[in-house]
C-alpha cells in the first residue's frame, strides 16, 4: 500500500507539473517574452529579417508591449529603415514616456528630418531624466544651433565636451556652432582638438578640410583630405572632397586620378566605383561618361543605379534602341519599376510614338500619383500629341507636388511664351528664379514677359541679370538684342547678335536675328554674306544651310537654294523642315519624281513625322494619284489621329472622290476643331456638310471660309452651290459669278459656268 501511495503521489505531481507547463505555454505574457528574447538573439547575430518577425509576433500578442516596439525600432535603425524606426520610436515613447533611450533616438531622427523644435523638446525631456548622456547633449546643441539659438548651443556643446573630453564629436559640434557665429578661427581650433582626440575621426578631417577649402587655403585643405583618406580608405567621401578641391584649383588630371583610385579601392561600393563616371557627367564630358558607365555596367550588371545612369547617358547620346533594350530588361524583372516606366514613356516620345507614351505614362502616374517626374513626362507626351490643355494640367500638377522641379516650371514658361500668356509666364519665371536663383533661365523668361507688357526697363534689367549669371550663354545676348530692336537701337542689337555668335558659333537664333535685321534694311546681299560667314565657322550646321537655301530662293536662285537645302538634309537626316523645303523646291523646278524619292527617303529616316506623309500626300493628290494620297493621309492619321491638317486633306479628298460621307464629315469636324481660324478648314467642313446634304449648315460654314479668304474662287463656288441647294438662287448666282471673276483655271471655269447655267433665273 505504501508503494502504491508513493506512486500515486508521483503521478499527481507529474500531472500537475504538465498542467502548469501547458498553462505557461498558452500564457500570452510568457509567449511575448519568448518572442522578444528570440528577436534580441537574432538581432545580436545580425539576422535582421528574423528579428523583425519575432518582434512583430510579440507586438501582435500585445500591441502595448513597449520593449518589443523599441527593439524593433533598433533593428530598423541598423537597416536604415528610417520611417519604420520613426514610427516604432513614436509608439515606444507613447507607451513609455520615461524611456530616455527611446526619446534620444527619436530626437536624432527628428533632427535629421529638420524638425528641430520637436527634436529639442524630446531630447530635453530625456536629459531631465539622464543629464549625463553625452549624445543627448550633442543633439540638444545641434537643435539649438539650427534654431538660431547659437549662444545656448555653444554652452550645450561645451557641456558635452565637459561630460566626455576624450570624445571628438563634442568639439565638432562646438566648431559647427562657431562657424554659424562666423568665428572661423575658433572653429578651426575646435576641429583641430577633435582630430587630436581621435586621429581617425573622419568628420574632423573632412570639416576642417572644408573650412580650409572655403578660405582657399588649398595646401592645408589637401592635407586634411589626404589624412581622411588614410584614416578611412574605404569611405568615398574624402576622395570626393579631394577631387572637388583639385577641380577648384584647375588640377583636373589629379581629380581624375583620385577618382580612378577610388574606383580601384572600392570595387564593392557603388558610391566609390561610380565617382569617376559621375565626375565626367559633372564636367560635361559625355563621351568619357558614356565610356565609363559602359564599363561599369558590364562590371556590375546587378547594380541598378549604374544601369539607370547608363540608360540616361545612352539617351543623351541618341543611342535610343540600346537604352530601350536595357530599360525593358529592368521592366521584365519588375513591371512596376516606376523609374523604368517613366523612361519607357520618354523613349516612346523620342521615337514619335506619343500616343503610346501617353498610355505608358498614365500607368506610371496611376501607380505613383504623387510623383512629380511622372506627371511632368506625361505632360511632355500630351504636348507632343497636341493636347496642350492636358499637358499644362500635368505640368501644374508636377510643380504643385514638387515646386523645385525646374523642368516643369520651364515647360509651363515655354507654353506661356508660345501662347502669349503673360500672366502664366510671370508666375513660372518667378518660381524659376525662386528655386534656381543662379540660373539665367528664369530671368530670361521674366525679362520677356516684362518687355511684352511694355516695361522695357524691367526687361533690360532681367536680361542683364541673365548675361551676368551666364556670360558664355548666347540666350541673354539674343533677348537683349531683340529688346534693342524694339527700342530702335539697331547698332547695339547687331553687336549683341554678334556677341551671341562668338559665344555659340552654332546659334541659329542669333544668326536669324542678324539676317532679319539685314532684310529689314533691304540688304539681302549682306544677309547672305552673314550666313556664308557663319557657315565657314560652323560648316556642319544643318540649320545654317537651310537658312542659306531660304535666302537663295528669295533671291530667285532656286538651283543654288536646292543645293544648299540638300546639304542641310545630308548633314542632318532628321531635319524634317529642310526635307520639306527641298521637296517644294524640286516641285518648282519640275523635278517631281525626285521630290517623291526624297520624301520617301525622309520618311524612312523619320517614319513617325506626319508632316512628311502630309507633304507627299499633297504632292500625289496634285498630280492625280488620289488613291496614293488617301493611303498616305490614312497612314498619317494612324500615327497622329487628331492631326487637323491631315484630317482636312483626307476629308476633302473623300468628298471629291465619292468616299464615305460620314467619315468625311467626322474628319472635317476634327480639322475645324484643330484649326478653328483657318478658312481652308471652314471650306472643307462646309463642303462635307454639302456632301452629306446638310445644306443650311454648309451655307453658314462656307460663309466663314469666305470671310477668312474672300479672294478664293473655290470657296465662292462651293458657297454658290450650297445656296443653290437651299433655293436661294440670287445669292447662288452672285457667288458663282464672283468665282468666275476670280479667274479660276479653265477646268474650274467650265464647272462654274455649268453651275451658273443650272441656276434658276440665270
Describe the 3D structure:
The protein has 762 residues and is mostly helical. It contains 45 helices and no strands. Helix 24 packs antiparallel against helix 25. It is elongated. The chain starts with a helix and ends with a helix. The N terminus is likely disordered.
What characterizes the major β-sheet? none
What is the helix content?
A: over 70%
Class by SSE composition: mainly alpha
* Number of DSSP helical runs: 45
Global shape: elongated
How many angstroms separate the termini?
A: 145 Å
Radius of gyration: 38 Å
Average pLDDT figure: 89
Number of DSSP E strands: 0
- Return residue spans where pLDDT drops below 50 for at least 5 consecutive residues: 1-24
Beta-strand fraction estimate: under 5%
